[in-house]
Design goal:
With 124 residues, the protein is an alpha+beta fold. The protein has a single domain, classed as PH-domain like (Roll). The protein is built from one helix and eight strands, in the order αββββββββ. The protein has one helix at residues 2-20; strands at 35-45, 48-62, 65-70, 77-84, 90-93, 100-102, 106-113, 116-123. The chain has an eight-stranded antiparallel barrel. The longest helix is centred in the first third of the chain and has 19 residues, at 2-20. The protein starts with a helix and ends with a strand. Residues 1-19 form the signal peptide. This is Lipocalin-like domain-containing protein. Keywords: Signal. It comes from Pedobacter suwonensis.
Length: 124
């Protein structure tokens, strides 16, 4: 009986060590770049132009896509998919929504779609 308890104890210790040494989660997988970024933003559509040096962009994730909500009466950009580039940095992919790069502290937008143009240089 004593031998069984020793073997069981050793297995329990080994299991605890294996679980605690599990590979760390990549910070980008935890959506650290979801949140609000502040900086200069602009939007142009035809004769309508909106610019702000103290604008904001709020980033949210729904499923596999991201949404960019602007202040300053700038239309939102929704349904954006991303591809990982480098360490914890992502760039947008897909038709008409390329030109967005994001990481935990910087957001850059250069999007042209259907004669509309969005730009943002923001940090948090």
């Amino acid at each position: 009986m004593k031998k069984t308890v020793q073997i069981f104890s050793m297995l329990l210790i080994a299991l605890t060590v294996m679980v605690s040494c599990k590979k760390d989660t990549d910070p980008a997988d935890r959506d650290f770049f979801v949140g609000t970024y502040k900086g200069s933003v602009s939007y142009r559509s035809g004769e309508n132009t909106i610019t702000s040096s103290d604008g904001k962009v709020t980033v949210s994730k729904v499923g596999e896509t991201y949404n960019f909500y602007f202040g300053n009466n700038i239309p939102d950009i929704t349904g954006v998919k991303f591809e990982k580039k480098g360490d914890n940095s992502y760039v947008s992919i897909g038709s008409g929504l390329t030109g967005i790069s994001i990481d935990a502290s910087n957001l850059t937008i250069r999007v042209a779609k259907d004669s509309q143009f969005w730009t943002a240089d923001c940090t948090r």
